[in-house]
Every structure is written in C-alpha cells, then in structure tokens.
Design a protein that fits this description.
Helix content: 40-55%
Number of helices: 12
Structural class: alpha+beta
Largest sheet: 5 strands, antiparallel
Distance between the termini: 38 Å
Shape: globular
Strand order of the largest sheet: 2-1-5-4-3
Order of helices and strands: HHHHHHEEHHHHHEEEH
Length: 290
C-alpha cells in the first residue's frame, strides 16, 4: 500500500504548477509540476523523507505529515481522504453490506416521480426503481455495475452528453474505493476486467484519478425520450453499509417542461413532451422494481 501512496503523491505533484501554490516557475524547469524540493518546503518536511515516501519506503507516515502534504499539493477532500486511507491513517470502516434492507427497497418502489438507485463502493447497482431502469437502458438488472456499464455497454456510448467526464468519475470512484477496501477481491477483479477490456479505463486508471461527487448536473441523450438535462443528488446511507442512494430530477428553475407539442393545439396534451418523470415512464409502462 505504501507503493500506491508513493505513486499517488508523485502523480499529484506532477499536476500542481508553481503558480498554483504561489511560486515562480523560472525559465528552466525540467520536470512537470512541482519539484520535490518545492513540495518538501511547502509541507515542512525534508526532501529525503519525501523521496522515501514516493518510493514507498516510509512506514506509516504520521497524520500531521499527511495533512501537510495534502495542503502542499492542494488535494481535494476526496484526494485527502484517499491519501489517509493509503497511509493507514483513516479510521477503520465496517465491512460493506452485500444487499439492501427490505425497507429501503420498498422506499425505492414508492419513489415514482424520480429515477433512484442504490449502489455500493464498487458501483454495483443493488436496487432501483422503474424510472432509473428507464433512464439507464440495460443497467438495472441482476449483476449490473455502473462502471462496467459506462465503459463496456453499447447502450452507454451515446447516453451521456459529457461521456468522458462520466468515465473519469467512474474511475475516480473506484480508485477511492480501492484505498478504502484494498483487499476486496471483487473490486480487484472488476478493475482487472476493465483494464483488460477498455483501453480508456487503463489510461485513466494509470493517472490515479480520485473523484467523489455528491451532486451536480448531468445531461443525457436518451434513445427513447431524447435530451434530458438533470440534476443528481447522492446520499451516503446510514449504518456504515457503504451504500449510496442516488436520485435524478430536473434542475431548479426548470421543473416545468412544455406540456404541448410545438405547432399543435395549445389545449392538446403532447405525450412526448412533459415532465421528466412522465417522459421516462410513458415509453416503459411495464417496468417494475426487482
């Protein structure tokens, strides 16, 4: 794990420019990003110790050292949590739950106005409602996995307007999970499968991206209902299960979509242009929650 910590620190150091941290770049820089000397000075540690860290030869660096490096490298909250995991300084977490509680599955069944689904740290889809099954064609079924779907399924190729950002998010989530659950055999197997089957995954994984987004916008080009501009919220479920509930809805200020077809009688409803939930529900009247 210390080798992984060293590789992650090197990757982040290469992405921070001197200007980012208030240093002069100078005319003759031979390295991309910051020099080791610059990081060591910013973090208040010796260059020799930073070299040992990057080479994976330092045993369990202290929390204060990791905090100082996180500040020096301007890590995001997710990246900071990741280096603490890699350094063995994060609190122990309970083993992730394998299934969802029946009460939670029943709640999803009653959420008939917004797509909603539950995933775990590997991005396995554990439960869903019929609108999420309609929003993500081919994903919501036994054994479905969001990362595998995004990289390998043909249905996902044209689904996202910003597909590369979705792929980066998928890799960043799995990288974060790998630090928290380094001995998870199913996670290791998933990363191995995607590395073999997807060149894009291989490239992104090598870059040691770490991402964790709990809310934001996502645009879809749905094969049945067309363009959808949605907002998502992701909630960590209580109880230490490692599961998350994600919901999708129209963005604030855009709740009411046109109710009539262009050029038609204004009083006549249009079955293809309506609220997001209706647009998804009408083409799939037989979808049920499993």
């Amino acid at each position: 794990m210390n080798r992984e910590l060293g590789a992650f620190l090197q990757a982040r150091r290469s992405e921070v420019t001197p200007e980012d941290v208030g240093l002069a770049s100078g005319p003759r820089r031979r390295v991309r990003g910051l020099r080791r000397e610059e990081v060591a000075e910013l973090a208040g540690i010796s260059v020799e110790y930073l070299v040992r860290l990057e080479q994976g030869k330092a045993d369990q660096p202290s929390a204060s050292v990791m905090e100082a490096l996180a500040r020096a490298l301007e890590l995001t909250d997710a990246e900071r949590a990741h280096v603490f995991d890699l350094a063995g300084r994060a609190p122990r977490r309970p083993r992730p739950a394998r299934g969802v509680r029946p009460e939670l599955a029943g709640l999803l069944d009653r959420m008939d106005d917004v797509p909603a689904l539950v995933t775990n740290h590997r991005l396995d889809v554990l439960a869903w409602n019929r609108l999420s099954a309609a929003l993500f064609p081919g994903l919501c079924r036994g054994g479905g996995n969001m990362a595998r779907y995004n990289f390998l399924e043909s249905a996902a190729l044209e689904l996202y307007a910003e597909r590369d950002e979705v792929l980066r998010w998928s890799v960043g989530q799995l990288r974060l999970a790998s630090g928290r659950h380094p001995d998870d055999p199913e996670l290791i197997a998933l990363v191995g499968e995607l590395s073999v089957r997807s060149e894009r995954f291989r490239s992104l994984w090598a870059g040691r991206l770490v991402r964790e987004r709990t809310h934001g916008g996502k645009r879809f080009t749905h094969p049945v209902v067309g363009e959808l501009d949605l907002h998502y919220e992701t909630f960590e479920l209580p109880g230490g299960s490692g599961q998350r509930l994600s919901t999708f809805h129209t963005k604030p200020g855009n709740d009411n979509m046109p109710q009539t077809c262009p050029g038609a009688d204004p009083a006549a409803p249009c079955p293809q242009i309506s609220r997001t939930s209706r647009r998804l529900r009408e083409p799939f009247p037989c979808l049920v929650v499993l």
